[in-house]
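Q: I'm writing a short methods note and want an example of a predicted protein-small molecule complex. Could you take the sequence and the SMILES for S-adenosylmethionine and return the bound structure as tokens? Please keep the output block clean; save any remarks for afterwards.
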Amino acid sequence: MSREFYQLSLFTDESTQKEENKSEYWGTFKDNLRVPVHRWFTYPAGFSYKAVEYAFQQFNLKKGMVVYDPFMGSATTNIVAKSQGINSIGVEAHPFVYEIAKAKMEWNIQEKAIITFINHLNSNFESKSHQLRTREEFLLSNYFPELVVRCYSEKTLTNLLIIREVFNEYKFENQKERGFIFVVITALLRGISTAATGWPYIAPKKAKVTSEGKDAILEFNKLARAMLQDIKEIQYFSKQNQNASEHDLILCSAKNVSHYIHNHSVDYIFTSPPYLNNFDYSDRTRLELYFWGFAKNWRDITNQVRKKLMTSATTQVSRNDPQYVIDSEFSDHCPKVTDFINSAAFQLQELRKIKAGKKNYDLMLIGYFNDMYKILKECYRVLKYNTQAIFILGDSAPYGVHIPTDVLIGEIACSIGFSSYSIEVLRKRGDKWKANPQRHTVSLKESMVILEKK
Ligand SMILES: C[S@@+](CC[C@H](N)C(=O)[O-])C[C@H]1O[C@@H](n2cnc3c(N)ncnc32)[C@H](O)[C@@H]1O
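A: Understood, no commentary inside the block.
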């Protein structure tokens, strides 16, 4: 390899990097599985509600202020904001994940309307079942892509189909209640499958340890009632703050929010962007996208979801696409960073020739930072002065080339206008890869990047 690679020290002011064990304050997404509403959807990329609470307390966020999460995901930031009476804005580009987030933020649903739907489903179940089974050529594969068919016993999937049909035909008086039932059915999907559908991978060939088929209708009834109880609990615990705050959830890309969020209107940003670790958010939600009919195949997923998300996986890039060069505005503003990225991309392009999988990590890297530049610019624009943006993220080492995402984001932010950045290491990660010489030996970490706008 002929070119020299920039050293991390080019960017890093050692004094800005603090290492602390903050796990007791920051927790993990598993914490969310124990608390009302947060636990409705196990999003593998989510952060702990405790981290959000801790950050709000540290920043002294008060009622009436506005917090913005440009990568809202399952709405962890917004749910905490709402329970504390703080206004929030959430942006999410994945249409299915957005639907889940929206439903999780509706706490003012009518219990009576939910019970009416549950009763309607129970009393129409047999007749709907009869109707379906007596249809000429009733085949589950006519209703669902193969992946879904392989994840359930025939009986369970037939029952899920009945639930879906009754749901789709039902005339809800309000979207709020419709959204609630949408989440109940979605939450059932992984729990009652007979295959290994745990996150992040779906392995239809692999049976679950406890793979006996569960009764979909019984589980639906249990879950719907448990989730109604959750609404009561969260309302009880946030009773002083009820209706005291406003929440704007937007389905769009954080790359351009100019139609939705005014300049200097946000008091705080707390977010966790996709990491540069080849995690394809659209693919990981395949089961749900296929079940609900958002998509029928890979191409649909690409058009409906993959293309809308910022680049963070090799499945989003193509060598035939000329867009995977550094944007000129980005390189004009941040020459130091873009030189580093170009240099690392060159190294990855060379490694690709000799490594297994021939992964397009070089293009993924360029696409990731082109997108991140635009998103950081939007974050800067919407923030008021004397505020902070907190980014929780991990670094990565595709083909062993270390990409210090935290430092690069801090440097880009300062070129855009942020006055300074600091980094706190939250935890080390990925050490198990050290044991496998096929992977890499770079020690990875998760950090918090704090950007100051003065
Ligand atoms: C790390 S996850 C955030 C999880 C969230 N903190 C939670 O607790 O659920 C990143 C999210 O960014 C979303 N995303 C990816 N590209 C986006 C874009 N261009 N604009 C907005 N959201 C995007 C992904 O769909 C994913 O839900």
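A: Remarks, as requested: The two ends are 42 Å apart (CA to CA). The chain is about 45% helix and 15% strand.
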